[in-house]
Amino acid sequence: MCHATSDLESFQSSCYTDLNRPQSSKTAKIHVLRRRRNGGRLSNEAKERAKLRKMKKVMKMKNLKLYKENKTIIEENERLRKKALLLHQENKALFSQIIIQQVSQPPQYHN
C-alpha cells in the first residue's frame, strides 16, 4: 500500500554520505593565502562562506533527524494498519456469529 519507505531509504543513502567529508587541500591553501593577505583576518566573503557551510551542516543534521522521525512514524503506521486489519476481521467474524444465532432461533412474539 505505502511505497514511502523505499523512497525514504533511497533518499537517505544519497543525502548523508558526505557529512564528514574532509575539506580539500586546494581549498584549505586558498583560505590560508587569503588570511595572510588580510593580516590573519577572514574577509567578509570568507566569513559568509563559513557561515553557509555551518548552516548547511546544521540543516543536514536536522534533515537526518526528521528522516529518522518519519521512518519511525511510517513503521508505527504499518503496525497500526496490521492491527486494524486484524480487528476488522475479528469484528466480521463476531458479526457473522450473531447473524447465525438470530437465524437459528425461532422468532418470539410477546402478547
From TrEMBL:
InterPro entries: ZPR. This is Uncharacterized protein. It comes from Anisodus acutangulus.
